[in-house]
Amino acid sequence: MGFFFKIISKLLGKFKLLSYLYYVIKVNDMRTTDKKAIDYLNNNPIVKTFIEKVNKQRKERYKEMSWMDGKTDLIVEIGNKFIRLWDGSSCWGFISRVDGDLKGSPIKKGDLLKPASWKSPAKHARGNIIDGTARYTEYGPAYLI
Questions:
Q1: Residue 1 domain boundaries
Q2: 63-119: per-residue pLDDT in tens?
Q3: How many domains, the chain?
């Protein structure tokens, strides 16, 4: 293992190596569904049911493809306007908590949104989890057709 670090250290430099190791360790330990999210899910059975359904479908698909190693349930993070769903260190998608406007496009409560980045959702909704029109795969909300 020490030989590996010597090679990486020469390639990246000592500071970059330490930064890389810190990032790898931090990412593995970074996100968990906190108490605020658990309380929100307990008070909103539609959202809780949707997330449980997605997690079940993802597990079945990964088991079918023999990809179960390292795949975990989606982690929920509650914000003021959106619920952010994480798949490890990647943003899986967003669920709107409010009615309003997103980048000039109207959104309703319960809209499923594809991530534009880890921080913000893309412009158009991919269906609604409340009325059952949400379109998604195990990798995230579906692309627009």
A1: 1-30
A2: 888 766 656 788 899 999 999 999 888 899 999 999 999 999 999 999 999 999 999
A3: 2
Percent of the chain with pLDDT over 90: 42
- State percent of the chain over pLDDT 70: 74
- Residues 79, 127 within the same domain: yes
The answer on pLDDT for 127 being more than 50 is yes
Contacts of 68 (CB under 8 A, 6+ apart): 59, 62
pTM of the model: 0.74
Are 37 and 70 within one domain?
yes
Same domain flag for 60 and 1: no
Sheet holding 111-115, edge to edge: 75-78, 82-87, 90-96, 111-115, 121-128
What are the structure tokens assigned to 75, written together?
Answer: 């982690």
